[in-house]
Amino acid sequence: MKKVQGAMPCRKPGKAEFVRVRPGEEWRLMTAVLEMERGIERQTYLVAPHLWPELSGEISPALLLTCVNRQSDMFVWRIKLPGADGRSNSWTESALQIAKAAETRWCRLVSDVGNGHYSHFEPTVALPDPQWPEISFQEIIRLAFRDRLIDSLDHPVIRELRGAA
Questions:
Q1: For residue range 80-137, what is the model confidence (pLDDT) as tens digits?
Q2: Residues β-bridged to residue 67
Q3: 64 forms bridges with which residues in the sheet?
Q4: Are 64 and 77 in contact (CB under 8 A)?
Q5: By the 8 A CB rule, do 10 and 44 touch?
Q6: 147/128 Cα distance (integer angstroms)
Q7: Which of 32, 51, 68, 75 is 20 to 30 A away from residue 16, measured at CA?
Q8: pLDDT value at position 133?
Q9: What are phi and psi of 64, to 5 degrees?
């Protein structure tokens, strides 16, 4: 029996899960995203590059990484990058360092609120390397953002932001 990937979450690794990041530039994307919060629900939308100038005050640069957990569940990890001012913060810097470490070993990401950054833990026993599902990066992005791709200023989310919806 073969698992069929029907959806792909875009999320941060859970604080109790060990994850690996798929190494290689072909498994990541530097892009821009729009985050919408409605109450406790937060949605991340992928924004087409031709719209970046028009939406520059509302979007954030982001790095999208292909990840897998110990249960072989794939997901996309979105790490916000510094904005136009180039100023980073300790949360972003520590997330990027942990993502780099997770390319070669299993890591568990934990928020260290008191110190204002992420810490990571590694397992105390050797774990086998992940078995990456046979799926292209283009398909991963399509599954992760299938109904959350903004490719037009007529998109309902953009219309809502501009008071037209």
A1: 998 767 777 899 999 999 999 999 999 999 999 999 999 999 999 999 999 898 899 9
A2: 21, 75
A3: 29, 78
A4: yes
A5: yes
A6: 34
A7: 32
A8: 87
A9: -105, 125
- Distance CA(108)–CA(16), nearest Å, equals 7
Tell me how many degrees the CA angle 30-138-17 measures, rounded to the nearest 5.
70
Cα-to-chain-centroid distance, residue 47: 14
Q: Tokens 């520059």 map to which residue?
A: 56
Tally of CB atoms within 10 A around 51? 19
The tokens for 131 are 């078995």
Closest C-alpha to 105, from 8, 12, 23: 23
Residue 144: C-alpha distances to residues 5, 27, 33, 48, 125 (Å):
10, 13, 13, 14, 32
pLDDT reading at 6 higher than 90 = no
Nearest residue to 50 (alpha-carbon basis) of 120, 149, 123, 163 = 149
pTM of the model: 0.91
For residue 91, the surrounding DSSP H or E stretch is helix 90-101
Residue 144 DSSP code:
H
Structure tokens at 42: 């937060």
